[in-house]
Amino acid sequence: MPLRKRLVEQGLRNKGFVVDQGKDLKFRYFHQGRYTGCWTKVSHGSDYEIGDNLLGQMKKQLGLRSSREVQGLCDCTLSLDRYNEILRELGHL
Amino acid sequence: MNGTICLDEIRPWVLEKYEQTCRPAMSARGFCGTQEDDLAQMGEPVIPLWDLEIDGRVVRPAVPIAIRLRKDGDLFFAENDSLAVYASGASREEAIEDFRQTAAFFVREFHSLGPDQVMGRGSRLREQFLKVFP
Q1: What total number of domains does chain A contain?
Q2: Which residues in chain B belong to E strands, given as ranges?
């Protein structure tokens, strides 16, 4: 299911991802002040739809198992605690 | 083929070979970030990255970086799982350029972070980046 860029941006900011302003907006995830190696990015500019193919890549960037989890992380149906649990389960934390 | 050949010089050749065969254009053995058998099974082309431009300087990795290139829908994806560098673009060239910029970002990033500033996947990636870009 496609996701709006604006929702990704808001969702990840709300989750405390650190934002880098460069050619793209990079979101990096720090846990307890340490970088986890989990990240993703969106383009600058107006809102647009992120398709399933790009969501599939964001899944890898964020260390998640499915596009549904990416969607949950962005629309806040997947809590930060649950995200941390998933990262632990997958050996990313 | 050796480390003095830059990507721009061989890119047309690699892409031409890929177009002809739809198979990996060259061996990925010895490259960073790929298992040749896995790639052969997937039938995805591997493009070597011989250098990166970082803050105006050309930096060469200790071993070439394998870029796995694939197309999904309207986008091209350039990826390396070992370095967790995932890039995309509307064309192959755009995807590879995005890969170069993303990789350069993380080289700077991991060189600026100490071991106590990373954890989990971040620690593994830092170690890998420092090994490939000492």
Answers
A1: 1
A2: 46-49, 52-54, 57-59, 65-72, 75-80, 85-89
Q: Do B117 and A38 touch (CB under 8 A)?
A: no
8 Å CB contact of B122 and A34: yes
Mean pLDDT per 10-residue interval, chain A, length 93 residues: 88 93 92 96 87 94 95 92 96 93
B-chain residues within 8 Å CB-CB of A70?
none
SS (H, E, C) A34-60: EEEEEEEEEECCCCCEECHHHHHHHHH
Beta strand pairing call for B57-59 and A49-50: unpaired
Residue A23 belongs to what domain range?
A: 3-89
Domain ranges of chain B: 7-132
Q: Beta B85-89 vs B75-80: how paired, if at all?
A: antiparallel
Task: Report the distance separating Cα A36 and Cα B53, nearest Å.
Answer: 25
A87–B117 C-beta distance less than 8 A: no
